[in-house]
Design a protein that fits this description.
Number of strands: 9
Distance between the termini: 17 Å
Order of helices and strands: HHHHEHEHEHEHEEEHEEH
Strand content: 15-25%
Helix content: 40-55%
Length: 292
């Protein structure tokens, strides 16, 4: 099997993660931001392949000038380091100022008996939605990859159990499909990452930022098969300690054919994703050739 372009795991090992959490219990995140901006980010920009894919994104997809593209590569890496620090800061017990646009859409669906699907992307810091956008009546099941580090999974579990969130891990034997179906039958919420796929997975090809890109078919197929409502949820960093959650409904014709339903959902999702990427261009965190 060909090597995956994206590994599905947070950088670093368990020892690094545990010590970062310990440090953050007693340290202002702004100090770590500064250290990362001065020492870590320049090293990554100079020696990591991510600089090439990031530069190509700003130059070829957003059509920025050469100087602006170079600056955006640096700022993109700075903000990504802040997002990673913020994630571990949450594990260490710190909190952030989070506001929500479109929260009524979530609250209204959460009152119904039927389950629904939320679609997310690797822009901003979606994980914060799991600690901020929750329901007392319904369990939210984020779909997570089995490649993730134990320290990250432990940090998530320590917070998720307080907010009625229960993760479903993708498994090689595909048993996660039964867990997803059972959760929707119970009226729960399934949260899918929708902008990354494995080489062996089925994909839909759509125009995104001026070129064709592949998106995993699974999330759209699950929603169409069950005929459930779908929300796009993006969590964007607005300041040093501030985030904003955007909740956007994705309407589709539930009487159409399964294929047409999937296409409608995928088109609506990609349009919303492109809108948020253009609104927050520094917060695109797919550090590989997304359009390959």
């Amino acid at each position: 099997m060909a090597e995956r372009q994206w590994k599905g795991a947070t950088y670093g090992n368990g020892w690094m993660h545990r010590n970062l959490i310990r440090i953050l219990r007693f340290t202002d995140v702004r100090l770590l931001y500064l250290i990362a901006d001065i020492f870590v980010v320049p090293f990554c920009v100079l020696f990591n392949h991510s600089r090439k894919t990031a530069y190509s994104f700003y130059r070829n997809r957003l059509h920025y000038s050469v100087p602006k593209s170079l600056w955006m590569v640096y700022r993109n890496h700075c903000l990504f380091s802040q997002v990673v620090i913020d994630r571990f800061a949450m594990y260490a017990g710190k909190s952030f100022d989070v506001s929500t646009v479109g929260t009524d859409h979530f609250k209204e669906l959460a009152t119904r008996e039927e389950g629904f699907v939320m679609l997310s992307s690797h822009i901003g810091n979606y994980e914060i939605a799991g600690y901020s956008l929750n329901s007392e009546r319904k369990v939210i099941h984020p779909i997570v990859y089995s490649f993730e580090k134990e320290s990250v999974m432990r940090g998530r579990n320590s917070l998720f159990h307080l907010t009625n969130v229960s993760m479903i891990t993708l498994k090689a034997d595909m048993s996660h499909l039964f867990e997803i179906d059972e959760a929707l039958c119970r009226g729960d919420i399934i949260s899918f990452p929708t902008d990354r796929h494995m080489e062996e997975g089925r994909c839909l090809t759509l125009a995104f930022l001026g070129a064709e890109a592949k998106f995993p078919q699974g999330p759209f197929s699950v929603a169409a098969m069950r005929g459930v409502d779908v929300l796009a949820v993006n969590v964007m960093k607005e300041g040093l300690r501030k985030y904003r959650i955007y909740v956007t409904p994705l309407p589709y014709d539930k009487e159409a054919s399964r294929k047409e339903q999937m296409n409608q959902l995928a088109a609506g999702y990609v349009a919303e994703l492109e809108k948020r990427v253009r609104q927050y261009p520094q917060q695109w965190y797919n550090f590989y050739d997304f359009w390959a």
